[in-house]
Amino acid sequence: MADSATLALFCCCGLLCLDAAHDAQGRYRLGFLAGATAMWLAALSAAGVDAALTPVLAQLLVGGVVVGTAIASLTGVAYVVRGRRARTA
After folding, report:
1. CA 19 to CA 12: how far, in whole Å?
2. Which residues of 16-54 are buried (b: 16+ CB within 10 A; e: fewer)?
3. Chain centre distance of CA 86
């Protein structure tokens, strides 16, 4: 089980992704929602919930964290690039 600072970090990152999703539109909103979900899954994993799951569900939990984080990262980069293009145009 992780310490409380790690759990708080994952929960705060999830809230930041939710805030970004609130301001975003379309596919960007979905990407940030995937990030929020990934962060909360990571918090569950850090809290030790995956130890109580079957091995298949534990692997799905880890896979969800990895895929959700990757989607949110790519969405964030695309969102920033799009914002810079809009400002320079």
Report:
1. 10
2. ebbebbeebeeebeebbbbbbbbbbbbbbbbeeebeeee
3. 26
pLDDT tens digits, one per residue of 20-59: 888 888 888 888 888 888 888 888 888 888 788 888 888 8
Mapped onto helix, strand or coil, the DSSP state of residue 24 is coil
Of 19, 77, 13, 80, the residue nearest 46 (C-alpha): 13
Q: Specify the 3-state DSSP secondary structure of 25.
A: coil
| 17, amino acid identity | C
